[in-house]
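Technical annex, item 7. During the second reporting period the consortium partners agreed on a shared format for inverse folding records so that results from different sites could be compared directly. Each record opens with the tokenized structure and is followed by the designed sequence. A conforming record, contributed by the partner at site C, is shown below for reference.
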């Protein structure tokens, strides 16, 4: 009877609606609100000409090495030892670019960079279904070309961390987590041969906000400061990273495997109980009850990424195009109407007539209320041709 109750309890708990997991992970495979599935999946759009690599090893164990690269670390806290700090600084001396989003950067690296932070501990109701009821504060950039006129409004409990101290002789302020209080959340530190970008609000790079067209622009505007180098995405310095030392530890770390293991044990115990009763009592031989296997179907819902119209997709592509021109051709573009066709043609190596045709098409499409699928395909081909022909 006890075994039956246990089986019923396990099966019941498996099919109960699960509460939203508000914990931070920032792994490229996590689809919970503060995983980084969307951010990682869209890196190809942010860095169209670059290879994207993932490392699951620590800095001293070795990360993928290119001639020059962007290294991206996103985690609630980031503290490495002296040896790892020396390795990162050595990478910077070769021209690598470092991007860290964390609300608590401490240890030797913080000392080397000359920074001190005001950390925070975000408070989120674990039973909440959304964050809309939280009090918001304005977050924005200092660069006029990417800042939002009315600020991005994020919950102040998620943006409480900011930089208290930094070396003003080599540090540039790129953004604020509270535009009224001027609390600095995004800085760029100049090293001898490269730059270090530090952001104090990692939650703004999670799935919860990147699924919203009104908010994903903030994260990718921050990343637009990085050059179009190969990207190395860190999966080692994440919260809750489990060190697997045995097959059983791996099994219990996965909910579905754990449930299957419990059911298997219960089945074995049930079999032993029934079998022992048959042996103890002199009864006619009967065929053992044929064990019926229980198949579990795991349904993994793909995150709804493209929840906008064709025009939303076009606006996103145009934003990335302008970021590419600003970063690689060093030409600032406020909108498609004020683009300097002659300078873009000279620096990209593309005939000016093609540049004019591209921006004329963009202006025409953006002026429409709706865009058909065929029109989106045509303008997307023109943008892709621009990337392919650009000499930069």
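Designed sequence (site C submission):
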């Amino acid at each position: 009877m006890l075994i039956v109750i246990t089986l019923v309890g396990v099966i019941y708990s498996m099919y109960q609606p699960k509460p939203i997991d508000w914990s931070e992970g920032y792994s490229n495979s996590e689809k919970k609100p503060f995983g980084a599935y969307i951010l990682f999946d869209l890196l190809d759009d942010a860095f169209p000409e670059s290879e994207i690599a993932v490392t699951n090893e620590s800095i001293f164990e070795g990360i993928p090495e290119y001639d020059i690269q962007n290294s991206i670390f996103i985690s609630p806290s980031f503290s490495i030892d002296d040896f790892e700090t020396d390795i990162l600084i050595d990478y910077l001396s070769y021209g690598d670019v470092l991007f860290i989003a964390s609300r608590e950067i401490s240890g030797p690296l913080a000392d080397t960079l000359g920074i001190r932070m005001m950390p925070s501990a975000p408070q989120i109701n674990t039973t909440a279904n959304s964050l809309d009821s939280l009090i918001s504060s304005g977050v924005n950039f200092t660069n006029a070309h990417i800042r939002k006129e009315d600020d991005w409004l994020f919950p102040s409990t998620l943006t409480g961390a900011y930089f208290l101290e930094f070396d003003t002789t080599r540090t540039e302020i790129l953004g604020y987590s509270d535009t009224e209080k001027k609390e600095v959340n995004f800085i760029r530190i100049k090293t001898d041969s490269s730059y270090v970008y530090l952001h104090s609000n990692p939650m703004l790079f999670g799935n919860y906000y990147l699924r919203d067209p009104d908010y994903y622009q903030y994260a990718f505007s921050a990343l637009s400061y990085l050059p179009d180098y190969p990207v190395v995405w860190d999966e080692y310095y994440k919260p809750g990273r489990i060190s697997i030392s045995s097959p059983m530890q791996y099994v219990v770390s996965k909910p579905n495997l754990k449930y299957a293991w419990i059911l298997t044990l219960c089945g074995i115990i049930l079999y032993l109980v029934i079998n022992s009763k048959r042996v103890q009592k002199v009864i006619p031989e009967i065929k053992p009850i044929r064990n019926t296997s229980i198949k579990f179907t795991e349904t993994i819902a793909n995150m709804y990424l493209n929840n906008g119209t064709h025009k939303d997709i076009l606006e996103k592509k145009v934003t990335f195009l302008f970021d590419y021109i600003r970063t690689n051709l060093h030409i600032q573009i406020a909108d498609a109407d004020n683009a300097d066709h002659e300078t873009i043609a000279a620096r990209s190596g593309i005939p000016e007539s093609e540049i004019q045709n591209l921006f004329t098409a963009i202006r025409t499409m953006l002026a429409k209320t709706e865009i058909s699928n065929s029109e989106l395909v045509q303008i997307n081909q023109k943008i892709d041709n621009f990337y392919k022909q650009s000499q930069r």
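Residues 291-306 have pLDDT under 50 and may be disordered. The chain is about 35% helix and 15% strand. All partners now use this format for quarterly exchanges.
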